[in-house]
Amino acid sequence: MGLFLVTSAFHDRNPSEVAVAITEYLGECEVSCGEVGRGEEVDDHRDAFVFPVTERWTVVVWPADLLGRETKAAAAMSASLAALASTIHIYDSEYWGHVLLESGEVLDRFASCAHSSAVVPAGAGEGRMKWGGNPNAIAARLDVPADAIRATLLLRRRGRSTPMTSSR
45: pLDDT confidence band, cut at 50, 70 and 90? Predict the structure, then answer.
């Protein structure tokens, strides 16, 4: 069995703010939630984990069962927190995807297999372009060199990875 991972990070928001946003979002979805106490058993298919701030980002590791719905959750929380958010998923160690959001609006999206119908339905050429990623846009928003981002946006093609060369 491969790796299934769903995680989001919220910029300049503390863990308490993020936990409240999770509670509000899940409440809107009619899912009850509460804080897991010390020593209580956790279930990675049910529980979200909120970590302390690291380099101005509060990270949430979502339940694996949220895979495929993490962008909607991150967008709702990004909007309610008026925050920059980055959400990433890894699907069965086969591909990964990233969406950068600000105040609930998608700024950029990338999937390592944007050419695959697993990400974008067949015949949706325009949709495939939307998942191509734009390292320059991400870098500009995060105030980092574009080459640092470009090196991570690798498309899987015929069993190997190819770096992005987008100049958008």
Answer: confident
- The model's pTM is 0.80
Q: How many helices (H) and strands (E) does the chain have?
A: 5, 8
Task: Please give the Cα distance from 128 to 114 (Å, whole number).
Answer: 6
What SS3 state is found at 98?
strand
Distance CA 33, CA 111 (A): 30
Number of separate domains in the chain: 1
pLDDT at 30 over 70: no
Does residue 102 sit within a domain?
yes
Whole-angstrom distance, CA of residue 111 vs CA of residue 120: 9
Asked if the structure places residue 168 within a domain, the reply is no
* Nearest C-alpha neighbor of 90 from the set 7, 34, 16, 167: 7
pLDDT of residue 136: 94
Distance CA 121, CA 8 (A): 24
Domain hosting residue 51, numbered range? 5-163
Cα torsion 157, 161, 66, 104: sign: negative
